[in-house]
Every structure is written in C-alpha cells, then in structure tokens.
Amino acid sequence: MLRKGRSLSYQEFNDDDDDGGEEEEDEDEGNAPSPVFFDDATEDPEHEKPDRSISQTQDDVRGTNPHMRFSKTCLKNFFTVVLIFIYLLLTAVAAFLAYQTISDFLEKLNNPVMSVIYKEVDSFSPPGIALYPGKAQLLSCKHHYHDYIPPLVDPGKPQEVDCKMTEVTYFGPFANETEKKALVVRGPSDVRNKELIFMQFSRNETEEDFSAINYMLFAKFSDLIDSANKSEFMRDCERNYSMWTFSGGFRTWVKMSLLTTSGVKNEAVEFRQESSVVKFNDKRPEAAQTDQLYFAVFEWRDPFMQEIRLIVTANAWSSIAILCGVFMALFKAANFAKLTIKWTIKMRKRHLRNKARELNHVT
Q1: For site-directed labelling of 42, which of 24, 129, 312, 341 has its Cα 20 to 30 A away?
Q2: Which fold has domain 122-302?
C-alpha cells in the first residue's frame, strides 16, 4: 500500500513536472520570437530609412566630388598658367629694358653732347696778331678806345707806332723751302673800354695785279715771347690756326671772339671774327696814289668768352640702378616660376593620390 501510494505520488510529481515543463516550454515558446518577427524587423521602415539615406549621401558625395575637384583643379591650373605667362612676359620686358639701357649707355658714352657756355670777363689775354706784309711797310700802329678813331693825318706817311711787336722768320710747315717773315703785334685786351688797334700799311703796287696782306690770330702774345724757339712756335701756329686777309684801298674792321673747345683729351683755342670793309677815299695827289694803302682795325667783339665742352650724358650710376632693378625683377620672376612649378607638381601629386584613393575605395 505504501509502495503504491509512493508510486502514485511520484507519478503525479513527474506528471506535474512534465506538465510544468510543458507549460514552461509553452510559455517559452509563446515568449520566444518567431521567424516572422525577424522578417518584420528587417522590413521595418523606421530602420530602413537611415540606411538608405546614408547610402544615398555616400553615392551623392561620390557622384559630385570628382566633378567639383576636377573643376577646382582646372581653375587652379588655368590661373597658374596665366601667372606663369604674365611673369614670362614681365621677364621679357625686363630683359629688353636691360638691353636698351646698356645700348643707350654705350651710345651716349661714344657720342658726347656739345655744351656751350658763355663766360663774361673784364679783359682778355692780349692775342698775337701775326701779319705777313711782304713788301708792304708799316706806317703806323696805335691803340684807341671806345670805338673811336681820329681822322687821318697825312695818310701814306710814317707816323707814331705805340704797339708792342716782334719779327719772326721761319719756314712754313707745309712747304719747308718757303721762308716767311711775320710781324707779330700784341693785340688789345681791355674789352670793357673797347680797346682797339689801328694799323696802316703802304705798298707800291705797280707790279701787282691784286693787293692784300695776310694775317693770323693766335691765343696769347706772351706764349710767343716766352717761347724758347719762336720759329717752331710760329710753325705750330700756322699749322693749327687759319689765315685771313685784308685788301688794299679799304679799311677792314675785324671784331674778334675767342672760342675754347674742351675735348675728351685736348683743349683747343680758336678765333672767330666778324669783319666789315669800308672803302678808303684817297685824297692824295695822283703821283702819290701809286702806293696802295692798307688799313686794319682789331677789336674784341664782346666781353664773353665762349667755351664749348663735350659732356658725356651717360650716367653710370643711373644705368647701374636700372640694371639692378631689372635683375631683381628677373630674380623674383625666376623665384616665382620655381615656386609655381613646385606648387604645380605638388598639386598634381595630390590629385593623383586622391584619385588613386577613390579608385581603391570603389574597388
């Protein structure tokens, strides 16, 4: 009886356990999610929308970024090429400017400009008046002032001589066989008081077709006096100065002006003159008119000494400054071109690296 009861109770307990287990399994089966639930969860629109939006934005970014990057790269390359072209143009202009500056400097250096300066003086150094009278005879030589010459008294006869003079005999520089005799007179010096020298010559012209006396002007009478070899000095003067003439039967008024030319190496002195000729009214007896009379007046034209200087207008410092600016511009242009090329290479490498990264991401 006891065994039966125990067996019954154990059986009941097992049945209860079985029932409880089945109920727990039923409950577990009721609580466990079914395959339909997973399908519904995967098909839930709330979870589907973010995934689609992320994929769409990624596709949009992938679709739009290459075009934007390509356009920016094109613009950068275009502006880089434009800048390089501008700087090449500026470099060409700078090189042309340097060439032009050097050419102008050399041209001005080889072709100096003539500058004329008028210097006012109170008196000139007495010039030398070399006369070649030949067979003519000096009748008078006097100093007068203020452009006034008194009336002639006994023309054709020897009169007072108050001029300082000397005679020099030498052989001409162009024909050594010709012997010349020069009568050198000390010229006027007081230009303020208009000092002048009046000379009168007489010559028998029975054997002459034309009558004239040659003369020559040189810078300083004192140079002849101080010269050790007067003959050689006169030869040099005749070689360097011009010859002039005044005719018989006239009064020749010579107005002198001094011209000094300062060259690159040497300095030259030249006389310029203006002459006026007036006919002499010969009132002598006919027997005395066979002797031809010559009248000459020498005077300074004005108190201004004309100086001509050859000036080199090429300024080396200004040319050097311009060339320094040009070379600085060339250096800056070269430096900019170097940096631009480096930047272009860097941008090209970056573009290729980004393109390779995109291709790797797509694959």
Answers
A1: 24
A2: Acid-sensing ion channels like fold (2.60.470)
Contact 311, 113 (CB under 8 A): yes
Q: Which residues pair with 257 in a beta bridge?
A: 272
Check if the beta carbon of residue 296 is closer than 8 Å to that of residue 252: yes
User: How far apart, in whole angstroms, are the C-alpha atoms of residue 193 and residue 275?
Assistant: 20
Alpha carbon 2 to chain centroid, angstroms? 143
pLDDT digits (tens, 9 = 90+) for 83-140: 778 777 877 887 787 788 888 888 888 887 888 888 888 889 999 999 998 888 999 9
- pLDDT given for residue 62 in this prediction: 46
Q: Which residue would you say has higher pLDDT here, 165 or 320?
A: 165
Round to whole Å and give the CA distance between 199 and 299: 12
Beta carbons within 10 angstroms of residue 185's beta carbon: 24
Give this prediction's pTM.
0.59
DSSP letter at 126 equals P
Helices and strands, number each (H, E), in the chain: 6, 12
Tokens 């030398």 correspond to 128
pLDDT of residue 183: 93
For residue 260, how many other CB atoms are within 10 A of its CB? 16
